[in-house]
Amino acid sequence: MYAPFIISSIVEDNPIGDKIDAHNVSWLEQLLNAQVQLSKYGTGLRGIAVVFIGTGPQDVIHQEETTFDADKKEWYVQLRLPYAALEQATEEEVLGLMAREYLQALRGLGGREQVVDFDWEGLVGEVERVMRGE
User: Fold this and answer.
1) Percentage of residues in the chain having pLDDT higher than 70
2) Is pLDDT above 90 for 38?
3) Would strands 47-54 and 65-69 be described as parallel, antiparallel, or unpaired?
4) pTM of this prediction?
5) Distance between CA atoms of 103 and 127, rounded to whole angstroms?
6) H or E element: which one contains 48?
7) Given CA atoms 97, 98, 103, 108 in this order, what sign does their dihedral have?
8) How does DSSP classify residue 118?
9) Which of 20, 58, 67, 112 could share a disulfide with 54, CB 3.0–4.6 Å?
10) pLDDT per residue over 51-86, tens digit each?
11) In 3-state terms, the chain is what percent helix, strand and coil (to 5)?
């Protein structure tokens, strides 16, 4: 990974995709990389890449998934955003939704026991504080 925190998306070319991609993806990535030092929590994890899926219910190709590459010490997560909520939300509300989904994913990452020498709770707490603007 080129940075400890990578944020990207899979979206449709429509106003809903724009709400995710226009500013929010890069803003979240820049915020996390500027304010959170992943290495501070141990040597067991070097990177977390999250892909937000913002496609309609007809999309059966892109699914949520979580994988950990033990050799690279990198976690890869795909998160599906609720399309109905995206339709009604402003870009700012979509950012809040993305932040909540990101935190929920960090809290519930299955297979965290695969990562040795890493303080998950410390990371989750710091990411939560950063996303609240503290």
Assistant:
1) 99
2) yes
3) unpaired
4) 0.92
5) 7
6) strand 47-54
7) positive
8) B
9) 20
10) 999 999 888 899 989 999 999 999 999 999 999 999
11) 45, 20, 30
Give me the phi and psi of 73, to 5 degrees please.
Answer: 60, 45
CB distance 25 to 47 below 8 Å: no
Distances (CA, A) of 57 to 36, 60, 75, 79, 122: 34, 7, 26, 14, 35
Which position has the token pair 């994988």? 67
Q: Which two tokens stand for residue 63?
A: 């699914």
Bridge partners (DSSP) of residue 11 are 54
Please name the residue that has the structure tokens 């940075």: 3
110 burial (CB, 10 Å; 0-12 / 13-18 / 19+) is: exposed
pLDDT score of 111: 61
Distance set, CA 61 to CA 14, 31, 55, 57 (Å)? 18, 30, 10, 10
